[in-house]
Amino acid sequence: MEYHLAQANIALFKAPLTDPVMKEFVDFLEPVNRFAEESKGFIWRLKDEQGRSASYIESPFKDDMMAVNISVREDLPSFKDFVYGSVHSYFLRNKKKWFDLKGTSLFVLWWLPKGELPTLEMAKEKLDALEANGASPSAFTLREFFDPTGKKIDV
């Protein structure tokens, strides 16, 4: 069976998306998401009903200030290339401008059978499992990474 790498991350915005402090972030949401979709290894990302960023979706986490991002990539190299080797890295390095770093900030990875897509509920379950049990083959991080067979590997 073939697998793809799914990821979910959540964080708290510092202000509503309409606030001037969020302008740079909001201005680049669509261009960065478009770049993500055009980058090597991209499979899918969560969008709202209008095709906009998942940041506009009402989350199951019951917090209007919660930013939710879920995506699927072919593999770990394509995930890391986009996150750390593209324009996305600017927003990662400068996240304190737009996100409350003292608030909830969670990240999880997991393998999905090729052809399956994650849901918000699935992402919440994976985040909850990681928080409750630590890294495992079914919910892990880049610090404690597992390949699709469940073997722990260094990345």
From TrEMBL:
It comes from the Bacteria. Pfam families: DUF3291. Residues 5-144 form the DUF3291 domain. InterPro entries: Dimeric_a/b-barrel, DUF3291. This is DUF3291 domain-containing protein. It comes from Flagellimonas lutaonensis.
